[in-house]
UniProtKB/TrEMBL annotation:
Keywords: Chromosome, DNA damage, DNA repair, Nucleus, Phosphoprotein, Repeat, Ubl conjugation pathway, WD repeat. It is found in: Chromosome; Nucleus matrix. InterPro entries: Rad28/ERCC8/Ckn1/ATCSA-1, WD40/YVTN_repeat-like_dom_sf, WD40_PAC1, WD40_repeat_CS, WD40_repeat_dom_sf, WD40_rpt. WD repeats lie at residues 37-79, 124-166, 184-225, 273-304. PROSITE patterns: WD_REPEATS_1, WD_REPEATS_2, WD_REPEATS_REGION. Its main location: nucleus. It comes from the Eukaryota. Pfam families: WD40. Part of the CSA complex (also named DCX(ERCC8) complex), a DCX E3 ubiquitin-protein ligase complex containing ERCC8, RBX1, DDB1 and CUL4A; the CSA complex interacts with RNA polymerase II; upon UV irradiation it interacts with the COP9 signalosome and preferentially with the hyperphosphorylated form of RNA polymerase II. Interacts with ERCC6/CSB (via CIM motif); promoting recruitment to lesion-stalled RNA polymerase II (Pol II). Interacts with KIAA1530/UVSSA. Interacts with a subunit of RNA polymerase II TFIIH. It comes from Anas zonorhyncha (Eastern spot-billed duck). This is DNA excision repair protein ERCC-8. Signal peptide: none annotated.
Length: 341
């Protein structure tokens, strides 16, 4: 696992549990520490493995750079410099015909950096304020989603020079007095998080209006799933995650020092994951292990695993089940006694 910290340090961890104990600490394999000549000077906002192999990885930072690293030597292969703070970058997980890194910065222009040529080859213009989150579609290699402080989410086909494909509209085109004042806005605040579902058919967005919205990514329609109030106090990009291979699918959203777990298509708040001692800044889901990883200001990265249920014979009714068959996520964690913590 690749991680970047607010101190500019990058650490690579071995996730394998060699002890076979239920609670264990992962070992750091290597790191780009403070003494490294090319360490980021400010907070690392995004890190990502090169999608096709782990011999290369990328990192971007508030120091206005995107760096391309050789994993084996921990030396820099390339550096891209920007005029403003870098909030987010992303490489397509499926692209075979391009090597573009999408970068969201303090500028309203979305930058596309070409790893093959080493230049910022494209600029996507349409947003009016800083771009806080970017994500390539996991279904179509030329489709990019961008989220901005201008309350808008735009979908682009990066082959087109004529502007974006669509701007998501929370009102689905219904022109009331309220919606005409906020034409084609995805949220009533800064949009600082977006995440595609693993099949690419839907897109989740989060804004500082304390709302999360689920969109049909091919029609651009707001599906109107109600998640209630989704607390979001982040001044920068919010890295949240969705599950892959679960039924139902879940969204994992940092919420203060906890992680809120929602069912994506019904909007139900399933549980709050508690374990961090300070604000959680990011979540990542690992589909191969079905594990969730979260990073917090308490300087901890925690791994969360699903509680396994024992198989239950079909002829046993739910009422006969002993308590341990319940997934802890569905148990009532409140104490009825003042004496218990």
């Amino acid at each position: 696992m690749l991680s970047g910290g607010s101190d500019g340090v990058i650490v690579v961890y071995d996730l394998e549990n060699l002890s076979r104990k239920p609670t264990y600490t992962c070992k750091a394999v290597c790191s780009v520490g403070r003494s490294h000549p090319d360490v980021h000077r400010f907070s690392v906002e995004t890190v990502q493995w090169y999608p096709h192999d782990t011999g290369m990885f990328t990192s971007s930072s508030f120091d206005k750079t995107l760096k391309i690293w050789d994993t084996n030597t921990l030396q820099i292969a390339d550096v891209f410099h920007f005029e403003g703070t870098v909030y987010s970058h992303h490489m397509s997980p499926i692209a075979t015909k391009h090597c573009l890194v999408a970068v969201g910065t303090k500028s309203p222009k979305v930058q596309l950096c070409d790893l093959k040529s080493g230049s910022c080859s494209h600029i996507l213009q349409g947003h009016r304020q800083e771009v806080l989150a970017v994500s390539w579609s996991p279904r179509h290699e030329y489709i990019l989603a961008t989220a901005s402080a201008d309350s808008k989410v735009k979908l682009w086909d990066v082959r087109r020079a004529s502007g974006c494909l669509t701007t998501l509209d929370q009102h689905n085109g219904e022109k009331t007095k309220a919606s005409s004042e906020a034409a084609n806005t995805a949220h009533n605040g800064r949009v600082n998080g977006l995440c595609y579902m693993s099949d690419g058919l839907h897109l989740l967005t989060i804004g500082t209006d304390d709302r999360m919205r689920l969109w049909n990514s091919s029609t651009g329609e707001n599906t109107l799933v109600n998640y209630g109030k989704v607390r979001n106090e982040s001044r920068k990009g919010l890295k949240f995650a969705v599950s892959c291979g679960c039924s139902p699918e879940f969204a994992f959203v940092p919420c203060g020092s906890t992680i809120a777990v929602y069912t994506v298509f019904s909007g139900e708040l399933v549980t709050m994951l508690r374990g961090h001692y300070n604000n959680v800044g990011c979540c990542v889901f690992q589909p191969n292990f079905q594990e969730l990883y979260s990073g917090g200001k308490d300087c901890n990265i925690l791994a969360w695993i699903p509680a396994l249920r024992e198989p239950v014979p079909d002829d046993v009714s739910d009422k006969c089940l002993p308590q341990q068959h319940l997934n802890p996520a569905y148990e009532d964690a409140w104490s009825s006694s003042d004496d218990e913590g």
